[in-house]
């Protein structure tokens, strides 16, 4: 079934078939025309479906920082990563308001479960690219038997040994509808065109939009003193940012993360946001005694600043700490104005990779 934003090339790449074969199997498709979302296509058998990747395949990066990163790119890269690294498990843990799948990727089989999530906020989509590059680095090192260096500790991390101790889960795009809205806007044929333009203060430029497509801030949706966050925000209705909704967990994306996290019982969670180069590690005294020291290790690894944050409620990290009493971190990656430009990706990732390696090792 065609997903929003799909092209024939992306579909062919996702399923490992030649683009020409896709057209032959679906003669009603015409090259160069838009493929309508929801359309069902016939898929030809992939060429050499049992072929295993060689080391040359592995050295080529799949997760490239070449353009603004959206939901179709995510789907395409997940499929390519799974073909190259069959030990990556992908689970659809829920659906967005518009019906897009919310993916969770898993590597490892250890007793300790760690979650990294990204793109709670729509105009922070670069965090999805950071998360996907990290899982590719881990998968490649695991496949080749290589180690990854944590510079601050002068230690080479044995990824194969770590994968037997830790199960790493990555939810790379919590808010796919919002990300697509930021990058593509809405045309006049969109069923919610008039409503969304009104919520965006009459503008067709959605680059500053943080919320989901319902105009609700997903990181203000969790049952952690939610009522106080509502009072603090002072918003009387949906909009581009900071509206906590009518009730906690009222939006499907927030409920998906809530139920997924309850089910997996994570030892640690990290939520990637932008920007500020800061790490928030506390919540109203619910955090474990070691949380500040652990945040210090993440700060040392990344060069970011560990910050004791006050006056904020209802976030995913807040709820996790309150609910489980375990370490939870919000990481504000990079510096500048959201959405951060793709040209900054390599510089940001150099620090985030180190932070995430240190976090998985905690």
User: Which structural category fits the helices and strands?
Assistant: alpha/beta
Proportion of beta-strand residues: 5-15%
Count of spatially separate domains: 2
How would you write the strand order of the largest sheet? 1-2-6-3-7-10-8-9
Radius of gyration: 20 Å
The CATH topology assignment of the largest domain is Aminopeptidase
CATH class of the largest domain, please? Alpha Beta
The helix/strand order is HHHHEEEHEEHEHHHHEEHEHEH
The total count of helices amounts to 13
Q: Rough shape?
A: globular
Number of strands: 10
Major beta sheet summary: 8 strands, mixed
What CATH architecture of the largest domain do you see? 3-Layer(aba) Sandwich
Spans where pLDDT lies below 50 across 5 or more residues: none
Calculate the mean pLDDT score and round it: 92
- End-to-end Cα distance: 41 Å
Percent of residues in helices comes to: 25-40%
The CATH homologous superfamily name of the largest domain equals Zn peptidases
Family: Belongs to the peptidase M14 family.
Cofactor: Zn(2+)
GO biological process, one term: proteolysis
InterPro entries: CARBOXYPEPT_ZN_1 (IPR057246), ENP1_M14_CPD (IPR034274), LysM (IPR018392), LysM_dom_sf (IPR036779), Peptidase_M14 (IPR000834)
What does this 3D model show about the protein?
The longest helix has 19 residues, at 126-144. Helix content is 37%, strand content 15%. The chain has an eight-stranded mixed β-sheet with strand order 1-2-6-3-7-10-8-9, sandwiched between helices. Strands 4-5 form a two-stranded antiparallel sheet. It is built from 13 helices and ten strands. It folds into two domains: 1-51, Roll (Membrane-bound Lytic Murein Transglycosylase D, Chain A); 56-178 and 250-361, Aminopeptidase, CATH 3.40.630.10. The relative contact order is 0.13. The chain starts with 7 loop residues before the first helix and ends with a helix. This is LysM peptidoglycan-binding domain-containing protein. The active site is at residue 332. Residues 1-43 form the LysM domain. One of its GO terms (molecular function) is zinc ion binding.
């Amino acid at each position: 079934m065609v997903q929003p934003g799909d092209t024939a090339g992306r579909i062919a790449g996702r399923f490992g078939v030649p683009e020409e074969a896709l057209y032959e199997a679906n003669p009603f498709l015409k090259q160069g025309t838009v493929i309508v979302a929801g359309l069902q296509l016939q898929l030809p058998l992939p060429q050499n479906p049992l072929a295993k990747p060689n080391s040359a395949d592995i050295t080529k990066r799949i997760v490239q920082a070449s353009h603004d990163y959206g939901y179709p790119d995510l789907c395409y890269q997940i499929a390519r990563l799974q073909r190259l690294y069959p030990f990556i498990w992908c689970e659809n843990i829920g659906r967005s308001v518009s019906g897009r799948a919310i993916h969770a990727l898993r590597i490892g089989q250890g007793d300790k479960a760690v979650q990294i999530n990204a793109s709670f906020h729509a105009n922070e989509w670069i965090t999805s690219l950071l998360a996907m590059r990290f899982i590719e680095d881990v998968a490649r090192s695991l496949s080749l038997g290589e180690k990854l260096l944590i510079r601050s500790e002068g230690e080479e991390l044995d990824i194969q040994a770590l994968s037997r101790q830790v199960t790493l889960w990555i939810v790379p795009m919590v808010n796919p509808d919002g990300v697509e809205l930021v990058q593509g806007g809405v045309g006049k044929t969109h069923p919610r065109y008039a409503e969304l333009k009104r919520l965006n203060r009459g503008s067709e430029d959605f680059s500053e939009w943080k919320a989901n497509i319902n105009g609700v801030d997903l990181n203000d949706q969790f049952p952690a003193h939610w009522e106080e966050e509502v009072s603090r925000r002072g918003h009387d209705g949906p909009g581009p940012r900071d509206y906590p909704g009518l009730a906690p967990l009222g939006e499907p994306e927030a409920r998906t993360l809530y139920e997924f996290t309850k089910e997996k019982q994570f030892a640690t969670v990290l939520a990637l946001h932008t920007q500020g180069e800061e790490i928030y590690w506390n919540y109203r005294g619910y955090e474990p005694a070691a949380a500040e020291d652990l945040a210090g290790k993440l700060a040392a690894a990344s060069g970011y600043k560990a910050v004791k944050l006050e006056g904020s409620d209802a976030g995913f990290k807040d709820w996790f700490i309150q609910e489980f009493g375990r370490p939870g971190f919000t990481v504000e990656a990079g510096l500048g104005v959201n959405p951060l430009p793709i040209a900054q990706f390599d510089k940001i990732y150099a620090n985030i990779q180190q932070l995430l390696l240190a976090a998985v090792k905690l």
